[in-house]
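Task card 7
Instruction: Convert sequence to structure tokens.
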Amino acid sequence: SAQKNWGAQVGKRPDETGVPPATAALWMRHHQRALAGETITHEVRLTRENQLRHYRNIIAPIRIDGRVAGLLGVSIDITENKRAEETLRALARRLRAVREEESTRIAREVHDELGQAMTALKFDLAWLTQRLPAGAERDKSQAMTRAVDATIQAIRRIAAELRPGVLDNLG
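Output:
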């Protein structure tokens, strides 16, 4: 109820309510705009009973025979909405951090495990190629070495796409 939320402020001008002067001045400007015929909606934060509260205030002109005869003010306590929004923002930040951590872990695993295995395979192929006589077998071994090189590049690209820059930190 208005009495519960606003107490002795009901029916007073903004500059008579005891709110900070800047808030009272803003409210006075809003009242003047509303008296000129404009509907005003704004949010305000106030401390009530040692608690920060958020309110959405609506000030609308009351018209009689086309003239503004008074103002209607509505104040909605949106504190719980604001808290829920902050909770959602915090959860979204945490979700981004978890995704980033998971991407980093996967990128490292792809880089380390697959990269090491492919590098070992490349060395073994180089050893084998050196021992093969010229001909079809040696040509095939060299083609396999090129395929391993291409796979190593693909592993690096995939790891970088998962976590750009992670390879800089891995050495």
